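Re: that backbone. Tokens:
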């Protein structure tokens, strides 16, 4: 990480502050004219628009960006969750001197507003009192349009996860079509993708010096529109599929072919019948060796992706484009990308250079108020309640799970804060955050245990083009040493006033088992009774499409978890998460997962249906039916995709096999699959043959209601009938509770 910055990037804390630094630091960034007046401001240099409530905490993007720009000397105002029906709300702070910065918030607005079944959600965790409908669909587009209406000549810079994951032509699950780059539809001047602190600081200072935003086209991690490819660039075509076929041996132009029955020169010579004069020397003519081309300058190469008009009509070509984009993701070797949209080009510079530890500390040590803005008074904001006592220690993920957007957004290079900075934040929580009881809810980030983990070789890391460092197994070049994280845990526990530190971030257990000392430290000191982990599935062919480890790693971790829990004299339980209806999943795969769950007495309440998010590789599988983890061709590997609504419900029902509301659907599926033998009361059978009597209807996990038919056991005596009904009611009562089996300790 340090090497990239040292060679190519100016440290973000080294810029000369903008002249407005003299106004000093705001207790909270202003959200109204009145607050600006109190600060003595006549205008804002930069105005940030966000779809989230304004919470001055580094876990919320607008607060982090706002405080960073304030530290650079700029006057920053925030318009949070504006009324978007007209431009009036976007004029609340006046005209910004430099630009509008636009984001949908911490989540993609479509993921935030809709369930995996495309049903609108009834709440919003990033809004006061979880009120719904406080942001529009495709918020970046709507906010951009309103800013243009408010002040047509003010530059627009878009960023955050919604813009980042929609930076090229992308499949949109909610409209079921390939949409243009958000840069085209928003008519923004520039798009920042990934972690954008470095790009944002440079852009801000250059605009402040009078440079036009449309002329700023040399910053990594940015995307913008161009009319054509600039002179001097080497364009690499990647607009067509590879079409394998029989390849004939190249003809040697010096070879003399004779007709049938004729003898070759060599044959005549071997027989001593040459007509050449005696003493004549034969000169052997050999193909000339081409001079080796000089090594290409990758910094002046641009890879051309298939045009929007092509990928929108050809799903297989879309999968090919997705593969190319993901292969150009390493900041050490990635090249620029270009994709035609009509008569213009969307140009993506290579990914941003990761922040150094010193830069990470600079960003997270800024003077955050660590609370919601006073305008929300006593309203409860669920997202804030969840993270108020947590600390972000790193960013990035080298897992590369195909269904996840973390790697696409934050990159594979792990960026870690220093131990000193992290411990200082723990003390600030203790001293500043109301309601602190001594429990830190999390020390983590995108993952729990990638802190300070990196490739053993800088040279290998810069040249690597693998999509994951831990699939199909942990790379031999990856340093899996967890000692820095263990030391951090121990020091954090020793801070006065801290009673307990929990680890709630997603644990990469296949990485954790490489360090038994870490697993012991985690299990014996940082688990609050339950530890949630995500095997995601039990079947190898599905896990391969997810780029997740096999169940062998889970079994190893489970054994270690139980052993260390027993050594500590604690009763603790693993709670696994699974995804239903992921590309590559068949009904048989879901049945096998259900049988696995029943064998280990798991009754899961929270089940996630696969949601195709923009730019994820699993989304390319969902849309195209092809596997972009390998070279994509017309006749390459097909991927089965459970798209139909009823099929997706069935896959989810298999995981919740214990819920009586799902039994009729499962019974019908088992009969159709020829597995009626799994219907019955036995321990090795999945669902009973009866449907329990109920009054009214049963609410299913997807929010719909179900009124079961057949209120008595099938072919049962009155005695068995009366005995079965109470058991069914008891099953319903305990359906949401995790089962605890003494033998397996689940």
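Recovered sequence:
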């Amino acid at each position: 990480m340090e090497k990239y910055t040292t060679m190519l990037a100016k440290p973000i804390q080294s810029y000369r502050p903008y002249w407005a630094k003299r106004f000093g630091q705001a207790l909270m960034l202003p959200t109204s004219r009145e607050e600006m007046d109190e600060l003595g401001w006549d205008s804002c240099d930069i105005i940030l628009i966000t779809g989230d409530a304004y919470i001055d905490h580094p876990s919320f993007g607008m607060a982090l960006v706002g405080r960073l720009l304030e530290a650079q000397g700029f006057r920053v105002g925030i318009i949070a969750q504006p009324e978007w029906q007209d431009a009036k709300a976007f004029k609340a702070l006046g005209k910004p001197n430099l630009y509008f910065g636009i984001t949908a918030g911490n989540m993609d607005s479509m993921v935030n507003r809709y369930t995996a079944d495309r049903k609108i959600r009834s709440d919003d965790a990033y809004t006061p009192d979880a009120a719904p409908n406080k942001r529009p669909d495709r918020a970046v587009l709507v906010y951009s349009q309103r800013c243009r209406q408010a002040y047509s000549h003010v530059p627009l810079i878009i960023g955050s996860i919604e813009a980042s994951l929609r930076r090229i032509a992308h499949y949109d699950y909610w409209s079921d079509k390939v949409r243009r780059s958000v840069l085209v539809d928003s008519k923004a001047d520039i798009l920042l993708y990934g972690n954008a602190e470095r790009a944002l600081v440079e852009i801000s200072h250059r605009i402040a010096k009078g440079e036009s935003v449309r002329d700023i086209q040399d910053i990594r991690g940015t995307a913008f529109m161009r009319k054509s490819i600039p002179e001097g660039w080497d364009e690499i075509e990647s607009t067509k599929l590879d079409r394998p076929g029989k390849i004939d041996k190249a003809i040697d132009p010096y070879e003399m072919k004779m007709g049938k029955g004729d003898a070759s020169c060599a044959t005549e010579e071997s027989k001593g019948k040459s007509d050449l004069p005696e003493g004549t020397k034969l000169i052997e003519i050999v193909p000339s060796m081409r001079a080796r081309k000089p090594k290409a300058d990758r910094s002046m190469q641009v890879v051309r992706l298939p045009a929007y008009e092509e990928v929108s009509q050809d799903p297989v070509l879309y999968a090919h484009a997705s593969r190319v984009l993901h292969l150009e993701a390493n900041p050490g070797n990635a090249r620029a990308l270009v994709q035609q949209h009509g008569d213009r080009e969307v140009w993506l510079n290579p990914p941003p250079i990761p922040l150094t530890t010193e830069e990470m500390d600079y960003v997270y040590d800024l003077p955050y108020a660590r609370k919601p803005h006073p305008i929300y008074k006593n309203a409860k904001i669920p997202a804030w309640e969840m993270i108020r006592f947590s600390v972000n220690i790193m960013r990035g993920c080298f897992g590369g799970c195909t269904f996840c957007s973390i790697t696409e957004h934050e990159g594979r290079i792990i960026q870690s804060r220093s131990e000193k900075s992290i411990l200082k934040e723990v003390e600030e929580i203790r001293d500043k955050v109301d309601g602190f009881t001594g429990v830190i809810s999390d020390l983590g980030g995108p993952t729990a245990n990638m802190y300070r983990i990196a490739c053993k070789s800088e040279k290998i890391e810069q040249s690597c083009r693998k999509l994951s460092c831990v699939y199909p197994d942990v790379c031999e070049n990856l340093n899996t040493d967890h000692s820095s994280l263990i030391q951090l845990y121990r020091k954090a526990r020793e801070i006065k006033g801290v009673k307990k530190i929990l680890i709630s971030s997603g644990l990469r257990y296949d990485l954790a088992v490489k360090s038994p000392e870490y697993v012991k430290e985690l299990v014996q000191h940082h688990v609050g009774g339950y530890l949630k982990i995500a095997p995601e599935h039990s079947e190898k062919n599905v896990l391969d499409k997810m780029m997740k480890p096999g169940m062998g790693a889970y079994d190893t971790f489970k054994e270690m978890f139980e052993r260390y829990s027993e050594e500590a004299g604690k009763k603790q339980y693993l709670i696994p998460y699974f995804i239903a209806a992921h590309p590559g999943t068949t009904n048989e795969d879901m049945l096998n997962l259900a049988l696995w769950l029943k064998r280990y007495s798991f009754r899961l309440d929270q089940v996630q249906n696969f949601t195709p998010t923009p730019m994820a590789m699993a989304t390319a599988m969902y849309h195209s039916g092809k596997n972009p983890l390998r070279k994509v061709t017309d006749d390459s590997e097909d991927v089965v995709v459970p798209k139909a609504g009823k099929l997706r419900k069935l896959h989810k029902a298999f995981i919740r096999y214990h819920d009586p509301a799902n039994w009729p659907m499962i019974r019908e599926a088992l009969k159709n699959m020829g597995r009626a033998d799994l219907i019955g009361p036995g321990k090795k059978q999945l669902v009973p043959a009866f449907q329990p009597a109920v009054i009214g209807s049963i609410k299913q996990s997807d929010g719909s209601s179900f009124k079961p038919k057949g209120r008595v056991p099938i072919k049962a005596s009155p005695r068995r009938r009366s005995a079965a009904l109470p058991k069914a009611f008891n099953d319903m009562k305990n359906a949401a509770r995790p089962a605890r089996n003494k033998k397996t300790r689940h």
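The longest strand covers residues 573-580. Residues 389-526 form a domain with the Transcription Regulator spoIIAA fold (CATH 3.30.750.210).
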